[in-house]
User: What shape does this take?
Amino acid sequence: MIKYEEITHESTIPFKIFSFRAKNLNRIIAPHWHQSTEVLFVKNGSLKIMLQNKNCILHENEFVVINPNVIHSTRSLNRNWVLCIQFPLSFLKRVTSNAFGNHFIFKDINNSPVTNKEIITLFNKAIYQTENKTKNISYYLDLYSSGLLILKNLINSYSIQTSSSSSVDKNVNILNKSITFINSNYTKNITLKDIAKYLGYSSSYCSKIIKKDLGISFKELINIVRLEQVVIMAKEGQKSFEQIAQETGFKTYRNLYNAFYAVYQMSPKQFIKQSV
Assistant: This one.
């Protein structure tokens, strides 16, 4: 089920920095969200990213910065080499004297990849450092140093002031409870009023929190939860898509198809065929 993802890292470094090379081009990282700021840099190849329900494609030497609590998913379009850095919210608050989230966040780049010669050099250095198989003192110090320099550059070049103090913890609690409720009731015809009643807030307030922090509407959030179950059931191959639509709350295959295509840009049948 879609949920808040707790990012863990090795105790030696207070953030997560690693690289990966795509092997299975059919694999889609399902829509998810977390409190970490995530940076994705493509060294070679390309990477498709769904960010706030919009799509962009990263090509060689391009990167995106994803603020906390933004629903996103990724898919490798070809064999690639990607650097991923995840800075936990607690770490960002600590190193910025609580300014991150309260006084600034990273810029909305309109879901488009960006390039920057200085930071590209830092990314390239870091991605080669992750390939070092000997995890000794030098390995950790090199990655720690690179991560801090990248963060410094991001703050200097890609931050924007926020207009008011952020209530991140409260919002995350609301989002977690909302998704927990949806996970338990996605087969039913649940509405925003049902969520609001469950949480004890007004419908407009719940809608505002979901839209502001996740970048999608309440309806889109329900569809993402349902679609995860669609994929699981379809891969089992025991039921038709018409049956799956009924059992996941979509009611009809047309509703399922439209929701599926909006997220994955292909029909559910095409997706399952490519996943075999």
About this structure: The longest strand covers residues 37-44. The radius of gyration is 20 Å. The first helix runs from residue 89 to 95.
